[in-house]
Design brief:
The complex is a heterodimer of chains A (196) and B (332).
Chain A (H helix, E strand, L loop, with lengths): L2 E4 L4 E4 L13 H15 L10 E8 L7 H7 L4 H10 L2 E6 L6 E4 L14 E4 L3 E5 L2 E4 L4 E3 L2 E5 L20 E6 L2 H13 L3
Parallel strand pairs in A: 3-11
Antiparallel strand pairs in A: 1-2, 3-10, 4-5, 4-11, 5-8, 6-9, 7-8, 7-10
Chain B lengths: L1 E6 L3 E5 L19 H10 L8 E5 L4 E4 L3 E7 L2 E5 L2 E2 L6 E3 L4 E7 L4 E6 L33 E3 L9 H9 L4 E3 L16 E5 L8 H9 L2 E3 L7 E5 L14 E2 L4 E3 L7 E3 L6 E2 L3 E5 L4 H5 L6 E2 L1 E3 L2 H27 L1
Parallel strand pairs in B: 13-22
Antiparallel strand pairs in B: 1-4, 1-11, 2-3, 3-10, 4-9, 5-8, 5-10, 6-7, 6-9, 8-12, 13-20, 14-15, 14-21, 15-18, 16-19, 17-18, 17-20
Helix pairs in contact in B: 1-5
Chain lengths: 196, 332
């Protein structure tokens, strides 16, 4: 078995067929499926993941959140009200994907729901906090991206030198905490120091 | 104990079989594009299948061997030279310290693999030596090779292939090799259709669209890379627009974005995707796809999962046989 990859509603198994080829009459996929069926029928113990409460400092708006004014306008809210709503909701990480350590975070206040931008940006800075549909995310690397950018965290999301190599994991409860712009620089410096 | 990069080539990276165990964290699996050529090259020098090789793309590098090394080059058919001699392809070659390997014109194929006995000794990151350039991960400093780079390799220990050691000692040629080879290494995908299995969302497409998908000779777009091959030639759209929930994708997953031009996800694919997956390329045919260049045609033919996996297992048996036969020849 190479990899087990949970998503929102599915779990994918990546495997090498030769590892399930002990019976030449049975196709490896059938072999593996039968074994999984057997295990699942027997029942697997429920292991509730340990609940971690993670606080994510975010510098909202300005250069870090260029889409904040537009999001506020679309909902007839003041920018401060958007920030207050985003910080007040309990959020939960559902899965990691798209890029290393990149979380899909559920729990966005319904009053902030917003479709993706019609044209994705070619470059979104690492740490950018964004919303689309009914979810939030934090860009872990500088990548292209089509979500609405409302702020930026100074924290590092992808930590290749650690195991597991990411700040957030599925099941984590996330609370966003607004920080003033002047705190962003020093916090970022501290968080990214170990990456060098 | 190094190979020095004199000219880096277009895109030369260190790759192994991929970075597995971390896709759940969104870490891209990566690894070689053409697993077959990579494994053949490793077999020729007695390496394990996951020893790191150099993946050479379209325009090859020029490399100087700081030490004597047993190497093999498989895959795309470059005219390669070692000093003034032509490099014999698809077979073990014992290269003398100081010799310069120059990849020149490219014949068939897209990517060649250079294996060195003992593997390319860059440090493993998350259990793999594969280079993932977008996240600057693995390989040599997480990037493609540059002029002046020095790739660590283990010094050649004589004895594994005694006849080659003796031949190099007796001559003053830049290398010693053998008359036999691994055989054909880079048959183009254009010659035969690539086998695909119906994907998880196959049923979302009408009978006509499915027939179009299988019947069209697509062209690989120039906007194709290690992450994905974009295809043009027919617009493939589901019966109605669908809202998909993101789920895992794999090497060879064929997904269809809203514009209707299919994308085949390749080695550096993302870990998950939200577009309908019309098909999955049979793993055994991925190497032919990896050797197909931008602007070359590609056609699909439908196979069952059983057929695809049997073909894959038959190839595994061929690898095992080849390994045994190399083992037999090097001893005698």
């Amino acid at each position: 078995m190479l990899d087990v990859v949970p998503a929102f509603t599915t779990v994918a198994l990546h495997y090498r067929p030769e590892a399930f080829a002990d019976d030449p009459a049975v196709v490896p996929f059938e072999r593996l499926a039968a074994r999984l069926e057997e295990i699942l029928t027997r029942g697997v113990g429920r292991r509730p993941p340990p609940t971690r409460r993670m606080e994510i400092p975010v510098c909202y708006g300005g250069e870090h959140g260029p889409d904040l004014p537009q999001l506020a306008r679309a909902h007839g809210l003041a920018a401060d009200e958007v920030i207050a709503l985003h910080c007040a909701s309990p959020h939960v990480v559902h899965m990691l994907g798209f890029a290393p350590g990149h979380p899909y975070i559920a729990g966005l206040d319904k009053r902030l729901a917003m479709p993706r931008r019609a044209t994705p940006r070619l470059k979104v800075a690492a740490g950018s906090v964004a919303v689309a549909g009914s979810q939030s995310t934090i860009y872990s690397l500088e990548t292209p991206g089509g979500w609405n950018l409302i702020g930026r965290t100074p924290l590092r999301l992808f930590l290749p030198e650690q195991d597991p190599p990411c700040l957030l994991q599925p099941g984590d409860e996330v609370r966003f905490v607004a920080i003033p712009a002047k705190e962003f620089g020093p916090l970022r410096e501290a968080a990214w120091q170990s990456a060098r | 104990m190094t190979i020095e990069v004199i000219k880096p080539g277009l895109l030369t990276t260190v790759q192994d079989l991929g970075r597995f165990g971390y896709q759940r964290f969104g870490v891209v699996a990566g690894g070689v594009m053409d697993e077959r050529a990579h494994r053949l090259a490793n077999i020729m020098v007695g390496n394990e299948a996951d020893a790191a090789t150099l993946e050479v793309t379209l325009q090859g590098p020029t490399l100087r061997f700081g030490v004597t090394a047993l190497i093999a080059v498989c895959g795309a058919e470059f005219a390669a030279r070692l000093d003034r001699t032509a490099l014999p392809y698809g077979r073990p070659v014992l290269v003398r310290a100081g010799a310069v390997l120059e990849f020149r014109g490219l014949g068939r194929g897209c990517r060649a693999y250079l294996a060195v006995r003992g593997g390319i000794g860059v440090p493993a990151v998350m259990a793999s030596r594969s280079t993932y350039v977008r996240a600057a991960l693995g390989g040599l400093e997480g990037r493609a090779l540059q002029k002046g780079d020095k790739l660590p390799i283990t010094p050649h220990a004589p004895g594994w292939f005694p006849a080659l050691d003796a031949a190099l000692r007796k001559s003053d040629a830049p290398c010693a090799s053998v008359r036999w080879s691994a055989g054909d290494s880079a048959a183009g995908a254009a010659t035969r259709p690539v086998r695909v299995i119906a994907g998880p969302q196959w049923e979302l497409f009408s009978q006509e669209t499915r027939a179009l998908f299988v019947g069209t000779s697509f062209r690989i777009s120039v906007n194709s890379d290690r992450m994905g091959y974009r295809l043009s030639g027919a617009t493939i759209k589901p019966r109605r627009a669908v809202e998909m929930i993101s789920e895992a994708v794999a090497f060879g997953t064929v997904q269809v974005p809203p514009d209707g031009n299919p994308i085949i996800l390749m080695a550096d694919r993302q870990t998950s995707g939200g577009y309908p997956k019309i098909a999955q390329v049979a793993a055994v045919d991925l190497p032919r796809l990896a050797q197909t260049r931008p602007l070359e045609p590609v056609r699909f033919t439908l196979a069952t999962l059983g057929e695809a996996q049997r073909a894959y297992l038959a190839r595994e048996a061929e690898f095992a046989l080849l390994r045994e036969s190399v083992d037999l020849r090097r001893r005698t």
